[in-house]
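Most newcomers find our protein records easier to grasp once they have seen one. Read left to right, the backbone structure tokens trace the chain's path through space. Once this layout is familiar, the rest of the handout is easier to follow. The record below serves as our worked example for the rest of this section:


***
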Amino acid sequence: MANKQRRGGSKNAVPSQRSRRQPADPYADAYDEPAGKKAGHSLSKGKSKGKKKTKRAAPLWAKLTLTFGALLMMVAGGAIVGIRSFEGNLTENVSVVDVLGDAGKTDAGPEGNDLTGAIDMLLLGIDVRATQEKNNARADTVLLLHIPATHDQAYLMSIPRDTQVSIPANPKTKYSGGSDKINAAFYFGAQNGGGWAGGLGLTAKTVTKLTGITFDGAAVIDFGGFKKIIDALGSVNVCVEEDSESLHYYHVNGKITYVNEHTAAGRGYKPYVHKKGCREKPGWEALDYSRIRKSLDDGDYGRQRHQQQLIKAMAKKAGSSGVLTDLNKINALMKAVGESMILDTHGVPLIDFMFSLKDLAGADLVLLKTNAGWYNSSGSGGEALSSSTMQMFQAAKNDKLGQFTLLNPEFVNREK
């Protein structure tokens, strides 16, 4: 039986993951630093500017897709205006691939501009460090987005990165298949020329094999891309639950500076602390908080929760800060996302895929906690999903998540 305990920092890295930490800033490229600039550059703390404005809430379909850089449009009075004029820029900046295969829904891509029925999307976040090849990344963030057939709600679920799974064979990259942590599926799919598209494809097949859920679409984004998107938005409101020490930023000569944690320990630098409370954070700070794991009482589950909250905060900001009517911000978002994301719409034209979500006006994003926020040891150095979590995925597959959350309220993340 799986050993159930409150999650702490993960100590069970597989041998191939022992050297994950590198001495250079993992987001050096995302910060657009001059070529050759290494760890130790400084960042000034961002401050919130401007006043809150009361306005009609933007529909969730706009918020979600804008957050992932897939939908860039203008909204007026709840109606779609002028999106066709952005179609050229949209399709030019977002890289669309075709990799879902058996992990895609067999009924996806109906004629016309609408996806009927429930919609399921796979969203992956990868951490490409400055000294790594892009194809050596692992997908440490695995998110499943479920939109019921009624299109009046949306649910976001996470799969822990250490979940022990059976990864299917992938002849294209000469991978014979085997048991490993789920974040390794992206790595094996990206090898031998597979690239990000191959990593996305194999991870999708792995998730489908694990959960039974097939997808209407899938996307992968570099964590550094989140920083760019947040900067294009200006900032996001982040609520810190407890004082949390960063493993990436330290006080050096009076400045907040990126330093590798091992280097910082050797030099006695004082870590930057995210203070409890809610406030606006710039991209580097919001992203750093969402990556913290070791200093949290609930370890990776805390990180999963914070990453979900960051996505929700980005969605909220996209719909409340005038982004949808700001052409400069729209263009900045398209550029930021185009450099950091690939998308598979499973054969549906990108612009039509966007229109398929137009009925989600006024809905909200419900965040769900895998294993109800508790760690289940698989007994083999990884993590196991609880029977209740498997029921949650089955409910998503059968479009019954609303009923599941009513019967299992402990799975709902109600924190800001």
In short: Residues 1-67, 69-85, 108-113 have pLDDT under 50 and may be disordered.
